[in-house]
Amino acid sequence: MSETFALVPLPVMGGFAALCLGMVLTPGPNMAYLVSRSICQGRGAGLVSLLGVATGFVAFLTATVLGLAAMLKALPLAFEIIRWAGAAYLAWLAWNALRPGGHSPFQVRDLPPDGPWRLYSMGLLTNLLNPKAAMLYLSLLPQFIDPARGSVLVQGLTLGAMQIIISLSVNAIFILVAGEIARFLSGRPLWARVQRMVMGSVLAGLAAHMAINR
DSSP label at 147? Predict the structure, then answer.
């Protein structure tokens, strides 16, 4: 344990934890799917879907520590494609929230009941196609790793494990309270509109930041 903290100092872990918390609180594909699934099929279905999301994070982490991030840095065009695709997707989510008649992740969507394997696979697929998750692991996580501190593998696994714990904990809370939040917003149109505008504005800002900053 002490060796791990020596490789990843507490200030670095704290900074990365704050980044991970901010990203998981920003509305995106994972939140929208998990909340909708929980409202339509119950908390158990949402938690099974969350297992698929967790598997997606493990896949991203494995690819990162095996050097995929380094490969993308060596191929600037590939990184630019990912960056612009992610920015475009976040902008599309922002438009869906801000446009007249738009919706928020806590708005009920009709999803047909699915079995456990389908729930798991849909959660996995949603996360694998999530530009926020890809950018977090392929672009942001490597910036918190310093080869001078020691094993790059241990640093990557430590930071990745912390991100997964934060993401699963926050999303589990959303799953458990999704119904209550949806009922609260449905009975208060003004609150629902304010929440949708705030979420849409955050998404738009994140999309602009991703597009402008290299």
Answer: G
